[in-house]
Amino acid sequence: MSSKIPDSATKGFADAASYEKHRPSYPSEVVDDLLAKLQVKGINNACIVDVGAGTGKFTEMLAARDEEYKIIAVEPHEEMRVQCVAKKLKGAKIVDGAGNNMPVPTQSADAVVVAQVRLRTPQLQRQHDWLSANLWTHSRHGTGRFATDESLEEIYRVLIPGGNFGMIWNVEDYNAPKSWEPRTAWEAIMKATMWSHNDDQPRFRHEKWRQVFEKQVSSSPFTIQTAYPLFSLPLGEDSVDIVDWLSPEAIWDRFRSLSQIAVLKDQELAMVKEKVFTAMSAPDVEKNDAGELPLHGRVIYAWSSAVPGAPLKQGG
User: What is the dihedral of CA 119, 120, 122, 125, to 10 degrees?
Assistant: First the structure.
């Protein structure tokens, strides 16, 4: 089964070089800790699958390590793969595939990682949102299929028995779940503005991604409890606070990259921009000597291990 990216999303990643330029990376200490949780830190020649590798930002961090990992970077977008291949990353094999259909041998990977990041152009954010929605929810858009159950089963298939699966996100305070309290008043205004333009597409902030794991064990008053645990529960989770000092213009550019803001035009977009800049211009807003503001966020990461011998569903 293949996963075809919708045309609108494909166009969004047409400029892979721009994506590579603007896409941020992760703190090295967070990556180090995640790899430790996945039990591949210090394991020479461990096989790691990087799903949705893009231009290879996370792949780069794996390839640069002393463990000399054997890396399989899975990416469905051709232009992204070209950028990744051009880096000539040590130990990395770049392949065409998606979360629910990976050209990876069964029980060959010590760990699988899905890394999702802050994207800084409207086109890139739209494709990121599409991939996120289809990889970790039941929503399906266009002809693309990153169906939740299929992806989880495929990840389980490629992992060795007891292998580990990790996920990592960069999340700004203004793009966080409603339950998270922004650390400044102006970021709270930005968050409220963002949520007021919510387009109901599932993203990390909707806190739905855990459901695919939690549904592995289900029951009802009419059925005996059905155990279907591919991955261990509860998930391991951790986070690290981050701060980027950016100019108001740079913060606006990043905020506007959110797909539900990027689609706004004319007066509606101008009103949102005015609201954001007014919030950033308040007398009590902290600024450094360069006039930059502290944009707060968190790196969130989670992990789980494949349950040895768990049966896969049959049929569809």
Answer: 0
